[in-house]
Amino acid sequence: MGDNDKKIEEGGSFPAKMTYQVIICCIIAAVGGLMFGYDIGISGGVTSMDTFLLEFFPHVYEKKHRVHENNYCKFDDQLLQLFTSSLYLAGIFASLAASYFSRRFGRKPTIMLASIFFLIGAILNLSARDLGMLIGGRILLGCGIGFGNQTVPLFISEIAPARYRGGLNIMFQFLITIGILTASYVNYLTSTMKNGWRYSLGGAAVPALILLIGSIFIHETPANLIERGKDDKGKEVLRKIRGVEDIELEFQEIKRATEISQKVKSPFKELFCNRENRPPLICGTLLQFFQQFTGINVVMFYAPVLFQTMGSGNDASLISTVVTNGVNAIATIFAIVFVDMFGRKFFLVEGATQMTVTQIAIGSLLGVNLKLVGPITGHTVPLTVLILICVYVSGFAWSWGPLGWLVPSEIYPLEVRSSGYYCAVAMNMICTFIIGQFFLSALCRFRFILFFFFGVMNIIMGLFAIFFLPETKGVPIEEMAERRWKKHWHWKKYFKQN
Question: What is the per-residue pLDDT across 167-192, written as a single tens digit (0 to 9) for each?
């Protein structure tokens, strides 16, 4: 047995250096996260702007300014919520199309197509004259998000060396947080402008243009090239991105996975019918379910609305949102630096614990201090809630935020990787749609109890991470079944015993 064979057998990674080609490709691809984050951050601020409400939702504007309107019900309107959630409904179907497109034509053109959809959607929103144009633009943005979220994390996981995969993949989540932070600052700048909401929504064209231009210069992933029969090109790219000549072991491992993949005529049938694919399917899908039911999008979508509900003025609520999103971005850097050192499970369990405590504390404060009518008097309670939200967001930002995307991108075998990851992305979009469409209505009916619900969900997901999720740190993607699933106390029963 050669040295390299021994190294792989004992749990090491394939020979590789951290090359500038890998870094550049990962950063450019991760701009897809910037698009996603900008849209998450922009919608909540826009829906709290009076000029936007007067233009498209005058009945909500009137309800918002009624003196005796129920604090929890000021923004309870299904059409207003559809403005936010329609994007994610479109993303469900777009992700399905992207799972086929990326496997057949490559990750690179799929990323490029994502930027084109997003660019057209941003232009349509910028020039919207009625609600139909507004929702149409959101649907096109959803297509861009669906194509981008389906492909970018897979692209990064396939192109990154195994021992650096966690930090590089979290670049996607980091740029999501930068997008959210940028959007909240843009909303603050445009909130006092005439038709400032147009500039806010139209600003989505900027990250789309960056991704469109950048995607011209990135490499296709070796795994996808080899899967499509381009072995020589795959070897060439693999040698270039690894920065070493000795790439034969990794090439052969990808080739072996490709041969298995090519025998699969129906990836979705293989995914659902083959028992051995059950563990990554369940874990990958549940990770995205839990990520959304941490309650994070309650904060990301509706933070300005939430702060206005507590009686903060429009400017104060937008400034509070900028602060919250700044914490989100800074905390994500912590995950980039340490996730390949401490591992995935450590951060998932710690983050779930931190979010549980803060959600229960926020719910308790609102339950005691926020009455049905009238603002909270004084600044102590809103400031305390802001601090708790920042602590909550930091817990999400270094755990379930980035790892909800990272882990599903690294646990599927090649033959079902696109279809498996689609299930994870689709779950994300479905849950995001549900929260975006119904949170304001749920806030109206359940009030502060909603935060206790999310607290309980965080307890459940922490237990899931402890008992059912294997550690994936440093394991080559094609070796995940042998090294992790077959050795897990629960999931090993799904595999044939040798």
Answer: 888 889 899 889 988 998 898 889 88
Helices 131-159 and 165-190 meet at what angle, rounded to 10?
160
pTM of the model: 0.79
343 CB neighbour count, 10 Å cutoff: 15
* Cα–Cα distance for residue pair 177/179, rounded to 1 Å: 5
To 5 degrees, how large is the angle CA 141–CA 96–CA 258?
Answer: 125
N-terminal to C-terminal alpha carbon distance within the chain: 22
**343 backbone dihedrals φ, ψ, rounded to 5°:** 95, 170
Amino acid letter for position 195: N
Q: What are the angstrom distances between the C-alpha of 35 and each of 106, 278, 423?
A: 20, 32, 21
Model confidence band, residue 310 (pLDDT cutoffs 50, 70, 90): low
Residue 436 has pLDDT above 80, yes or no: no
Q: What residues contact residue 257 under an 8 Å CB cut-off, 6+ apart?
A: 223, 413, 414, 415, 478
Residues whose CB falls within 8 Å of the CB of residue 426, separated by 6 or more in sequence, listed in order: 92, 95, 96
Of the candidates 184, 182, 198, 181, the residue with the CA atom closest to the CA atom of residue 52: 198
Q: Pull the structure tokens for residue 257.
A: 């996975």
User: If residue 60 lies in a helix (H) or strand (E), which one and from where to where?
Assistant: helix 58-64
Of 148 and 262, which is predicted with more confidence?
148
Nearest Cα residue to 372 out of 52, 45, 74, 17: 74
| Eight-class DSSP state of 371 | -
Average pLDDT over residues 110-128: 95
Query: Which residue carries 């006092």 as its tokens?
Result: 192
- In 3D space, the residue among 248, 60, 486 whose CA is nearest the CA of residue 495 turns out to be 486
All domains of the chain in start order, with CATH: 18-494 (1.20.1250.20)
Q: State what percent of residues in the chain have pLDDT above 90.
A: 47
Q: Which of 112, 121, 174, 124 is nearest to 406 (CA)?
A: 174
Record the tokens describing residue 304, joined without a space. 């300005």
Compute the distance between CA of residue 177 and CA of residue 325 in angstroms, rounded to an integer.
Answer: 7
- Per-residue pLDDT tens digits for 223-257: 999 989 899 999 999 999 998 888 898 899 889 88
Task: Give Cα separations from 423 to 20, 113, 282, 283, 429 (angstroms).
Answer: 32, 20, 9, 11, 10
